[in-house]
Amino acid sequence: MKKFAANLAVLVIGLVFLAASGWFIFQHDAVTGMLWAIGLWCIPFAFFILSIVALVNKGLPKFFIPSRLAASGLFALSLTLGASIVMLAFANAFVIEIGEPEEDAAAKIGWFGKWTGYTDLQENLEEVEGVYATYYVTPENKDKVKEIERMMPLIEKRLDMYLPTLNASQKPEIELHRDASTLQLLGDGDMLGGFYTSITERMHIHDNNQYWKEILIHEYAHYRIHQYQLEQAGEALLLPIWLEEGFADMVTGTLVLGPFDAYQDLPLEEVHKSGSRATTELNGVSLYIYGQLLVTELTRKGGVEQLQNWLLEEDTDQLEREFRDLYEMTEEQEIQRVIIEEYQKQLTISAESRMDAATNHFETWEQQLEVLKEKLYLPMYIQAMEHCYRLFKNELNFEEAAQVLNLLEQTDITRSPDEMKQERAMLEAGKGNLDEAVHLLDELTSTQAEGVRLLLLQQDNLILKQLIEDPKNPEVAFYLQERPFFGQGTNEWLDQIQQIYSNE
Fold it and tell me: What Å distances lie between residue 117 and 58, 92, 110, 185, 253, CA to CA?
């Protein structure tokens, strides 16, 4: 009984020492905390040496180590305490570099608990099990789950263009934040729109942000990269920040239009030497946009399979060699300059021009778009679909236009369902189904907020209703001259509608 009490007392003393050491280290900045950790580490190190001596001598009764078993226990305890102090010192440095909380032990420990998922970022969280994800929401943003559930299969489909498909049983976790203040783990003030951490494998999204849909796609891309690395390498890999963030920005479907000088002037080798994952800017240049430029063009040039290999490569020297080989660069040429110059060349060839060029080689629009999908950057591919859609509408080919619209809806995932519904209403009007078109527009106008969009919807709807009542109403013809529904084909369409409804 006495031995048990003595062992328990030693264990309690060790834990108290560790807790006090951690609190003391977290009270200081990174360098000072590291220096204190070295000093504190000397204490368990001294007991570590003592335990080795006791093990060799089968005990040291003078130092209250009566046997080799007791020496073994002291050896394990001192080793654990020493390693824990080292980890505490690095944890303090990590919190300061990444989180930038106040230099207060309680604030730092609180930040670390939230970052690692041991404590919640928000109060009143409710778990909602969706088809495509598990959501953590508050009463203020619970209604957003429905919209995200609509988007998730489309987002997955977009990421499947670049990464292997996920196992059907894998479901991400998404926590929605109505107020940016609950997101502040990275010290970015009100600018932080979301983040993903591989520690908890949970996405955090500020759903009240104007660009919350793009943020959701961006953070889901991080999740997919992480899952891909776990599957292929068995662990999360430390990629250059420009590569991972650039990929995540690329798949949002946005397009960088310049100016490009600052990005061309920042050597890729310098970015790699900077090293820190916490650095989002270098020499005033956003590494996110820098990465988006490079990854967008590299993916076009190298292809998806090569992109997947790069997302598993931590060796920046190897990446640089492969980029040079891909573009057949000389040693004198700067990697980023060559890639960004090629990116600019691709921008000069408009999606419409490529669509027209492809028309001369393929019989169907499906074949044309499939070729353009491989040749164009994603946003330009979406523009090509929009161009194709407008062509069919203006040619009054509404069946083909409806098929392209369906494809566009699956690809342009940040476009609102209301916009798509409005387009379907106009296609119904194009086919002569004015009653159905009016019905769809009535539904839309009842849910729209006040603004220019609502006024235009109401005006378009009024014109369709006037057409039903009086197909030859001069106000209708005047309105369609100012706002043609189907471009150059509007007059022909109006003649057809007047014939249909005049006969009735």
Answer: 44, 17, 11, 12, 31
Are 285 and 321 in contact by the 8 Å Cβ rule? The answer is: no
**Would you state the structure tokens that stand for residue 133, as one six-digit string?**
């994800």
d(CA 242, CA 224): 17
CA angle 256, 304, 254 (to 5 degrees): 20
Classified as helix, coil or strand, 141 is coil
**Over the stretch 321-354, which tens digit does the pLDDT of each residue have?**
999 999 999 999 999 999 999 999 999 887 677 7
Give, as one character, the DSSP assignment of residue 132.
S
Q: Tell me the C-alpha to C-alpha distance, in Å, between residue 175 and each of 81, 167, 170, 196, 198.
A: 36, 21, 16, 10, 14
Q: Are 171 and 227 in contact (CB under 8 A)?
A: no
| CA–CA separation, 280 and 286 (whole Å) | 6
Q: How far is CA 407 from CA 141, 203, 394, 397, 400, in A?
A: 30, 28, 18, 16, 11
Q: How far is CA 64 from CA 14, 47, 313, in A?
A: 16, 12, 53
Contact predicate 337/264, CB 8 Å: yes
Sheet of strand 194-197, all strands in order from the earlier edge strand to the far edge: 126-129, 134-137, 173-177, 202-206, 194-197
What residues have CB less than 8 Å from 278, skipping those under 6 apart?
Answer: 97, 98
| Residues sharing a CB contact under 8 Å with residue 54, sequence separation 6 or more, in sequence order | 60, 63, 65, 68, 70, 71, 74
- List residues bridging with 203 in a β-sheet: 174, 196
pTM over 0.70: yes
For residues 217 and 414, what is the distance between their CA atoms, to the nearest angstrom? Answer: 9
Q: Which of 318, 346, 344 is nearest to 264 (CA)?
A: 344
Q: How far is CA 395 from CA 112, 384, 390, 481, 491, in A?
A: 61, 17, 8, 17, 11
Residue 229 to residues 159, 219, 333, 501, Cα–Cα distance (Å): 14, 16, 32, 62
pLDDT tens digits, one per residue of 83-107: 988 888 888 777 766 665 556 777 7
Highest mean pLDDT (candidates 52-56, 147-151, 381-385): 147-151
Helices (H) and strands (E) in the chain, counts: 22, 7
